[in-house]
């Protein structure tokens, strides 16, 4: 009788365990270490970007201006001290990993905002978590009357 009760008890436990697994109630498997949390991208207009850069210049100079236009566009005029990595270049992602410090904050722009917006997920995938997007791009920057470095004429 005691042996029959043990078999009945073990059968019930096994059945209950199977039901939990089938219902997705099993204990979760240990997860892999997570990547750094992706912070939301901050979007600013030209005047807010100009103010942000002026405040940063007075402090620790932690913000890097990242211009993702072509070299030709960049050479025709750009923000002082900016870094140029052509978003359309086949090696853009490799260059990001090679040249950019993921600990820094990047103010990203292109001509009008399309390429720079598309570059954001690639920058985040490279581990860059502090991103500020210049909405309207270089065109908005110029139209707002902000300083532009142009080639000597």
Task: Please render the helix and strand layout as text.
Elements: H1 2-22, E1 42-44, H2 46-58, E2 63-67, H3 71-76, E3 83-84, H4 92-99, E4 105-109, H5 114-125, E5 130-134, H6 137-143
Parallel strand pairs: 1-5, 2-3, 2-4, 4-5
Beta-strand share of residues = 5-15%
For the termini, the CA-CA separation is 104 Å
Task: Note the total helix count.
Answer: 6
Order of helices and strands: HEHEHEHEHEH
Radius of gyration over all CA atoms, rounded: 27 Å
Largest sheet: 5 strands, parallel
- Provide the helix percentage: 40-55%
Unreliable spans are 4-33
Average pLDDT value? 84
Helix-and-strand structural type: alpha/beta
Strand arrangement across the biggest beta sheet: 1-5-4-2-3
Which word captures the global form?
globular
| E-strand count | 5
Describe the protein in words.
It is a single chain. The protein has 153 residues and is of the alpha/beta class. It is built from 6 helices and 5 strands. Strands 1-5-4-2-3 form a 5-stranded parallel beta sheet, with helices on both faces. The longest helix has 21 residues. It is globular and about 35 Å long. 20% of the residues are buried.
Core attributes:
single chain; 153 residues; alpha/beta; 44% helix; globular
Produce a short descriptive summary:
By secondary structure, the protein is an alpha/beta fold.
């Amino acid at each position: 009788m005691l042996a029959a009760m043990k078999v009945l008890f073990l059968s019930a436990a096994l059945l209950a365990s199977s039901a939990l697994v089938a219902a997705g109630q099993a204990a979760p498997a240990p997860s892999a270490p997570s990547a750094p949390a992706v912070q939301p991208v901050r979007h600013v207009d030209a005047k807010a970007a100009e103010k942000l850069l002026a405040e940063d210049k007075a402090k620790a100079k932690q913000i890097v201006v990242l211009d993702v236009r072509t070299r030709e566009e960049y050479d025709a005029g750009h923000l002082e001290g900016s870094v140029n990595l052509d978003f359309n270049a086949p090696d853009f992602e490799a260059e990001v990993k090679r040249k950019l410090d993921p600990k820094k904050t990047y103010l990203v722009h292109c001509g009008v905002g399309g390429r720079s917006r598309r570059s954001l997920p690639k920058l985040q995938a490279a581990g860059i978590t502090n991103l500020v997007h210049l909405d309207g791009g270089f065109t908005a920057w110029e139209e707002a009357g902000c300083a532009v470095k142009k080639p000597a004429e």
